[in-house]
Design a protein that fits this description.
The structure is a single chain. With 495 residues, the chain is an alpha/beta fold. The chain has a domain of 168 residues: Alpha-Beta Barrel (TIM Barrel), CATH 3.20.20.70. 38% of the residues lie in helices and 19% in strands. It contains 16 helices and 21 strands. The strands form 4 sheets. A 7-stranded antiparallel beta sheet has the order 13-12-1-5-3-19-20, covered by helices on one side. Strand 9, helix 12 and strand 10 form a beta-alpha-beta unit. Helix 6 runs parallel beside helix 13, helix 10 packs parallel to helix 11 and helix 11 packs parallel to helix 12. The chain is globular, with a radius of gyration of 27 Å. The model has no long low-confidence stretch (mean pLDDT 95). GO terms for molecular function: glycosyltransferase activity; nicotinate phosphoribosyltransferase activity. Pathway: Cofactor biosynthesis; NAD(+) biosynthesis; nicotinate D-ribonucleotide from nicotinate: step 1/1. Catalyzes the first step in the biosynthesis of NAD from nicotinic acid, the ATP-dependent synthesis of beta-nicotinate D-ribonucleotide from nicotinate and 5-phospho-D-ribose 1-phosphate. Belongs to the NAPRTase family.
Amino acid sequence: MKITKDLYQSSLVLLTDFYQLTMAYAYWKSGKGEQEAVFNLFFRKHPFQGGFTLAAGLDYVVDFCNNFKFEKADLEYLEVMKDKDGSPVFEAAFLEYLQTLQFTCDIDAVEEGTVVFPNSPMVRVKGPLIQCQLLETPLLNIINFQTLIATKAARINFAAQGEPVLEFGLRRAQGIDGALAASRAAYIGGCTSTSNVMAGKLFGIPVAGTHAHSWIMSFETEMEAFEAYADAFPDQCVFLVDTYDTLNGVKNAIRVGEILRSKGKEMVGIRIDSGDLAYYSTKARQMLDEAGFPNAKIVASNDLDEHIIASLKSQDAAINVWGVGTKLVTAYDQPALGAVYKLSAIKNADGHWEPKVKVSQQSLKINVPGFHNTKRYYSKGKAVADMIYLEDQEINPKGVVIIDPVDATRRKRLMPAFYQEEILLKPIFKNGKKVYKLPTLAEIRARAASQLDSLDKTHMRLVNPHLYPVGLEENLHHLRMELVLKAKKFDNGED
């Protein structure tokens, strides 16, 4: 499905920051526009103080790149832009260049549903400087949000311990785009369905829902409302019981359940949306069981997140299904992933690649230079470590040392010959042509489940997770340090 074309009916090439266009113009003006470069998209810290992150959004990236072009309306808008002195921001020759600009980059990326870690590239872009620069903002916009929501969903599903989690966030999401992208990412992260009907149509996600308090309030009595709903949906009755009095609502649901049963139908369950969910779910479970409805589900909602769900589980709350909305689709406790897009290498006039490093007073913000990739090592199906390495660097199968990018005292020795390995960056585009077969959303969701299962549960703890080993291959670490010291002009004791 052509996501951008279906939703917007136009090019999205101007979905960018203004400074990307001004840099593109300056590259063109200085003759550097076609100089080849490599950029990497990565993040520096896991969201939610967690121990893992779940990649999402690549499908949107592919769609964006497939439709990358400056259309007539885009150029007309750029043409009328004026500087402070009233002169055009962009000269006509540059706009003519943009009109004929064709996407020719190589893009390698981790597949959606892959567990990823700080400082490892999620997307690598190689191509002319102008094109690489123009991709920065849209790629970050896409990957940042969907990865954040997929990770939040995975954490919530982990807390639910295998019980179904329904995504109910449409009305609280950040606009139409945020709602649709969040529903898709939440499904990748393990949610079983969404209340968002358009997301169901566009992405094939199962849709689910019950009824609101307004349905109950529109009738004279709660009992009448339940009976009318049962008459309309005899095979999928989940009654919202907390409009007036929760336990009395459970009694009314049981009465209507008995009427349904007399007609050969069965009540699916009840939903509780307020109050002490642990207390009311336990009481409701007792009432349902005593009335002969042991299979009736109890659905809980009301500003849930992974921490509240974990707390309810620890209290032995009798909840079977979890409806999560606001705190999932808005990533309530951390509204941004903070992924960045940095230049890591540039091709000189002699045709050689020159590694580039951004130096900072904060070691966390020093990027990884060069043309690099990540290998994940597995033992008996479990991920044991990730190594970031230069692609032209030969790896000794008998032993390699990986060094933490932020803390060089944290090191781990690996024996690659004893592990199974996976190269995480996969070719997506080659010379601007898609070479990657996009998986279905169901396949992405299955990969996410498999990837999460490959992690030791200590890395998935909601609080104080165990640190998964990720490090630079020793030669890459030395290259990085050499470039940093050179950039800082430190005296290394050499003449």
